[in-house]
Write a structure and sequence with these properties.
Elements: H1 7-43, H2 48-89, E1 91-93, H3 100-113, E2 119-123, E3 130-133, E4 141-145, H4 146-151, H5 154-169, H6 172-203, H7 221-244, H8 249-262, H9 265-275, H10 286-289, H11 310-321, E5 371-372, E6 378-379
Parallel strand pairs: 2-4
Antiparallel strand pairs: 1-2, 3-4, 5-6
Length: about 400
């Protein structure tokens, strides 16, 4: 299970990151050409070869602007992607003084392996999840939700932090952020082109048609429009597939890396069981959810799912790292009431991560109300007799 810092995976992620950046510009150029073809087709009714030549001419003129726009987008994303993610998740940076428990767990993990410590952020959300962000060591951050902090014990939180540290070390975080940037660029350009297309269609074109006199002989505008729309759709689909095609092995390796860091496979398994199905961040985009420990938003028939099933991840941990699977858990306060009794026997009776302890029986109140006894329960008597008080005799209480 030597997964932490797996060098072949790290090198592969570096190659993928470069390929993703190249793919970003290719897809942007495809979208720009499709936009130019749409503009020509809506402006003049001419043979298809003429429209293609005109669109190519427009594309060459627009090429420097498209390249500059993509570079500006990358610069904005490089500088401000964390602020944007914080805005949609409610995350904020915390210090040791504000969150000593979580801060110390993360710091101890980093010290134990000589890892530069990323910033720690808390998202004030009830769901159970965590994710890492950043493009370099100065930017790396780990965000955990308030729900995860409250529902997981120290060992389980430590396992989740180890999972995210492994993502950072293996280069998964940088690659995922670049993929998110690509999705943002393509979505923005695609939406812009479609808006221009429908606006032009509604108002009868971008301007006066140059075909002259409504002559339709050899007109290829309709075909050109179909080709342009097809190019836009293909570029958008490719931008989605690029994100979904990122190897799901990264989650298996991050789970294994967490076990290697913490030496506690049971903690990672229990953390996954508690997070399972409870990680949906309501305000987060799909791109942000793809960076989380678990992404409940599954793809079509699991074909485009960004995360392997929890059961498969736990099975891998059991097969290669040992540990025990308690099976699906029901958490009081999160799951439906009818699910509360379905966790493995014995777990419902405990407080802490599984909810509050069952209510203890109370003794009847005395004349002035219930008073606490030595064990915390109420006992009767004028001031609350101790639980080991002697029994009354035949003439009343013994003094």
């Amino acid at each position: 299970m030597a997964a932490y810092g797996l060098y072949t995976h790290i090198r592969s992620n570096r190659r993928r990151s470069i390929a993703l950046l190249i793919g970003l510009f290719v897809l942007v150029y495809v979208m720009v050409f499709a936009g130019a073809l749409l503009a020509e087709a809506l402006t003049v009714n001419a043979p298809l070869d003429y429209l293609m030549r005109a669109a190519t001419y427009d594309f060459v003129i627009a090429l420097p602007w498209a390249t500059g726009g993509a570079l500006i987008w990358l610069l904005i994303a490089y500088k401000f992607h964390q602020s944007i993610i914080d805005a949609v998740t409610g995350g904020h940076e915390v210090s040791r003084r504000e969150e000593p428990r979580i801060y110390n767990l993360l710091e101890n993990l980093c010290i134990s392996r000589g890892i530069p410590m990323p910033r720690l952020r808390i998202a004030e959300e009830a769901p159970l999840n965590a994710f890492a962000t950043g493009l370099n060591e100065k930017q790396y951050s780990i965000t955990v939700t308030r729900g995860l902090i409250e529902r997981l014990d120290d060992a389980e939180v430590e396992a989740v932090l180890g999972h995210e540290l492994t993502h950072i070390r293996n280069g998964d975080v940088r690659m995922m952020v670049i993929a998110v940037i690509i999705a943002g660029v393509i979505s923005f350009v695609g939406e812009l082109v479609f808006r221009l297309f429908f606006q032009a269609s509604f108002y009868g074109g971008f301007g006066r048609r140059r075909g002259g006199g409504g002559d339709r002989r050899g007109g290829g505008a309709g075909i050109a429009i179909v080709i342009a729309i097809a190019l836009i759709v293909v570029a958008w689909i490719l931008s989605v597939v690029i994100r979904f095609a990122l190897s799901r092995k990264r989650e298996f390796l991050a789970d294994a890396g967490a076990v290697e860091l913490t030496k506690n496979p049971d903690a990672m398994i229990m953390a996954l069981r508690k997070i399972e199905g409870r990680g949906e961040l309501p305000r987060a985009t799909s791109a942000v959810m793809e960076m989380c420990v678990d992404n409940p938003r599954s793809g079509i028939a699991d074909l485009f799912a960004t995360h392997p099933p929890i059961d498969a991840r736990i099975k891998a941990l059991i097969d290669y790292a040992g540990g025990h699977d308690p099976g699906p858990l029901a958490l009081p306060g999160i799951d439906a009431p009818e699910m509360i009794g379905r966790q493995p026997a014995g777990e419902a009776a405990y407080g802490g991560p599984w909810g509050d302890a069952p209510e203890q029986p109370q003794a009847p109140p005395g004349p002035w109300g219930p008073m606490p006894g030595r064990d915390g329960s109420a006992s009767s008597g004028p001031w609350g007799s101790p639980p080991d008080a002697p029994a009354p005799g035949p003439w009343g209480p013994r003094r």
